[in-house]
Here is the input.
Amino acid sequence: DGGITQSPKYLFRKEGQNVTLSCEQNLNHDAMYWYRQDPGQGLRLIYYSQIVNDFQKGDIAEGYSVSREKKESFPLTVTSAQKNPTAFYLCASSSFSGGAKNIQYFGAGTRLSVL
Amino acid sequence: DQQVKQNSPSLSVQEGRISILNCDYTNSMFDYFLWYKKYPAEGPTFLISISSIKDKNEDGRFTVFLNKSAKHLSLHIVPSQPGDSAVYFCAASAQGNEKLTFGTGTRLTIIP
Here is the structure.
């Protein structure tokens, strides 16, 4: 069945290490998004992509990088430059039809912790 | 700056009664609003949305009301059920923009 798959569910990062979070969707959605959730806070947008080979920074892009080589996949790399990476990371996707409003659908999330 | 605000971090409601969750926004360019429900360690699930051309949208037990002049929206759940216990996020987007801005969430607890 269709959906958004995030892996792994839990991830641990050592100091100075880059880690990559996977996000795959089979909904044939054009747009994909990465959010970060911290305790007691809402979801904050890290990066988003509306089309293959193109992506834009969100509100908190520093210390993160993404790629969009395939429509189905939008991996997020948390680099060593991100000094406070411990959070719950959520990937979402939506169909994109210009000015029409579309709902974002979310994966189950990846919890990243620093060792 | 917090453009979407949910001023009540938590709310407890008796089972069978009405739950009312509130959301305020400051950006007058927002024209589409959504409510999501989230259980711990899971992704948010879409509940209901409303366009700024409407002031009410209903879907089963869930109704969203929009007051554009007050820049305020609310989600009504009636009757409340134990499975409704979750964190509810309000989100908004502006015309021509796919990005969503989220509130900080309200934790709803339904008391049996």
